[in-house]
Each structure stands twice: as C-alpha cells, then as structure tokens.
Automatic annotation (TrEMBL):
GO molecular function: ATP binding; protein serine/threonine kinase activity
Source organism of the structure: Dillenia turbinata
Listed Pfam families: Pkinase (PF00069)
Name of the protein: Protein kinase domain
Keyword Cytoplasm recorded: no
SMART domains the record matches: S_TKc
Keywords: ATP-binding, Kinase, Nucleotide-binding, Serine/threonine-protein kinase, Transferase
Keyword ATP-binding among UniProt keywords: yes
InterPro entries, A to Z: CLK_kinases, Kinase-like_dom_sf, Prot_kinase_dom, Ser/Thr_kinase_AS
PANTHER family assigned: SERINE/THREONINE-PROTEIN KINASE DOA-RELATED, SERINE_THREONINE-PROTEIN KINASE DOA
Domain Protein kinase: start-end pairs: 61-352
Coiled-coil features, chain-numbered ranges: none
Length: 356
C-alpha cells in the first residue's frame, strides 16, 4: 500500500486560522473569542500535550476527561461542538517517531474506511489535524478495552459464548485487513474495545474461594472494534523483525508467555504447545534443539516454566466440552506459519460453526 510506504514523510499543513487569532488573541473564532484555545504551554518531559479539563482543543472540541494514556500519547474525551456528540481524540506526543506512526495510522484508517463496505469492525476515524506539533486523530467514542474490562472485573474469565463472539469479530477484522494486504502487528486485549460501556452485574465468580460474596460484570453487548493501527505494515513491505507486544506475539495466549527474556519465551512456548519444529530451530542456527534449561537465566525461571500446563489442560480448567476450542487454538498457535490457520480459515472452524 503506497500510503504506508511514505512513513518517513510527515504531511505538511499550513498553520490553521483558529490557532492564531486577530490582534494576537490566539484561537479566536472569527475574532469573537468565544471558544479560544488555551495559552501555549510547553509539553511535558516526554512530549505529551499539557492540558486542563474544560479547555478547548481547537475551538471545535472541548476537553472533558482523559480516557487513557500510552507510549504514543493520550486519549481525551471531548465534546464536538460541530456534530454535538462525544468523541475520543488521540493526541500524539510531539516526538518525530510517534508523529510518523500517527500519520501511518491516519492513512490506514482512511484506507480501511474507504473499503469497509459496512462491516465496521475497525474503529472509525472522523477527523485529524496537527495542533501545536501534536497529531490529533478524532474517533467515535467507544467503551473500555477488553483488558480494562477484565482488570476492573478482577480478571473473572468471560463465558465461552462471549469469547466465541469476540473471537469471531476479531478474526473478521483481521481477515478484512489481510484482504487489503495489511498486517496490524499489535493485536492484544488493550487494542480491542467494546463498542458500549453498558454492563450487567451478576453474582459469583468461580475463581474466588472465600465465603465472601463476589460479583462479576458482563458487557450487555458483545460488539467490539479493533483500534491502534500505528504499527500497521503492508504485507509486501519490509518491516522490523520485532513486532507486537511480546506477551501477545504469535503464538498468543492468556498471557501464557509472560516474560521479557527471549530464550525463556521460547521455552514457555515449547512447554505449552510442544517442541519447536526441528527445521525452524535449524534455520535459527540453534542446533537441533532449544538451548533449555542450559541457557536459563536463573533456577526460578526453570521452575516457573515447569509449572506451566499444556494448552489442553489450561483450556479444560475453564471450559466444558472444550475440544473444538482447543483444536482451534492449536491451529492458530502453530509454530510454523505455513501450517497456521489464516483468519479466514479460522472463521470456518467448527468452534464457530457448531457452538454446541
């Protein structure tokens, strides 16, 4: 995709009229000063935009709250005075590499929207602008991420029927991107948002063993959307050999591989999924087997890996009649990418075709 290949060039935009008002009054609208921009401030040490609640982000958007923060910047809940609706605005740090990634995201979002044909599985871009050296991307306002929902819910697992609906929609999003020769590269619960914040509160969560009454929350709607396309690459484009947050790199899992050490990560994969294929090890110049436990960084690391269960046992602890789900996961977690299920193939799996 040509738009993504232009990542080294940040678009030039003229300074917009609303950022410099007449007679030196910054942000005046038509000279009235009704919705002025705040006085200019220095960014913080990390290049984040500094703001106060109730201020304007251009005269069009009023800042209501901070919805989240990441390495890229901050997401602000704003009121759009033009459309009279709540929006989420991603305000990117004023650092070149994040500005470049933001423009990649704008290109990808516009390309996805142009070809969407009503599927609406990816977050919708409404607008973008460059404000005081911060790329700002305006999105529809959505609910919490699956990660935030789980965390607030004390990590009570979702029912398998809800997991099935999440999985179906996520695979549809990925398949759609692959049809356009795009690779997201950073799929994880933090980047999957519920469309609505509405939820119901139910008693009981099996993981708690005390006599105290506990509750769990379930979303009222299973609708989700995929976000954060700043790391997206074209399928035929050269890209970094390191992609995706480590814990969720293929093969993925319920943070099955919670580590920051390369060899330990591979050893965890072998423990949960079985031995790495010999031809892949030989191709990595590691001999005929993984250098484990000889290469372990500590005895604690060895003990932690020995405690891990096989994938079948992990799933069976949470799901009754789990055969089709285990088979699907094994297909998605194949070490050899040539043997791994594609997103479209996974959608045709019995787990989605025969729920019972």
């Amino acid at each position: 995709m040509a738009a993504i290949d232009r990542t080294e060039r940040i678009r030039k935009r003229p300074r917009l009229a609303w950022d410099v008002g007449p007679a030196g009054q910054e942000g005046a609208v038509g000279g009235s000063g009704r919705h002025v921009s705040p006085p200019k401030r220095d960014d913080d040490r990390e290049g984040h935009y500094v703001f106060n609640l109730g201020e304007n982000l251009t005269p069009r958007y009023k800042i209501l709250s901070k919805m989240g923060e990441g390495t890229f910047g901050r997401v602000l809940e704003c009121w759009d005075r033009k459309t009279r609706e709540f929006v989420a605005i991603k305000v990117v740090r004023s650092i070149r590499k994040y500005r470049v990634a933001a423009m990649v995201e704008v290109d990808v979002l516009q390309h996805l929207a142009k070809n969407d044909r009503g599927r609406l599985r990816c977050v919708q871009i409404q607008n973008w602008f460059d404000y005081r050296n911060h790329i700002c991307i305006v999105f529809e306002k959505l609910g919490p991420s699956l990660f935030d929902f789980l965390r607030r819910n004390k990590y009570c697992p979702f029912p398998v029927d809800l997991v099935r609906e999440f999985g179906r929609q996520l695979l549809e999003s990925v398949a759609y991107m692959h049809d356009l020769h795009l690779i997201h590269t950073d799929l994880k619960p933090e980047n999957i948002l519920l469309v609505s914040s509405d939820h119901v509160k139910l008693p009981g969560c099996k993981r708690f063993s005390s006599d105290e009454t506990h509750f769990r929350c379930l979303p009222k709607s299973s609708a989700i959307k995929l976000i954060d396309f700043g790391s997206t690459v074209s399928g035929n484009q050269n890209h970094s050999s390191i992609v995706s947050t480590r814990h969720y790199r293929a093969p993925e899992g319920e943070q099955l591989f919670k580590t920051h050490e390369n060899l330990e990560h591979l050893a965890m994969m072998e423990r949960v999924l079985g031995p790495l294929p010999e031809h892949m090890i030989r191709g990595a110049k590691r001999g005929s087997r993984l250098n484990w436990p000889e290469g372990a960084v500590s005895r604690e690391s060895i003990r932690a890996i020995r405690k891990l269960d096989r994938l079948k046992d992990l799933v069976s602890r949470h799901v009754d009649s789990s055969r089709s789900l285990i088979d699907l996961l094994h297909g998605l977690l194949k070490f050899d990418p040539s043997e791994r299920l594609t997103a479209q193939q996974a959608l045709d799996h019995p787990f989605f075709k025969n729920p019972m």
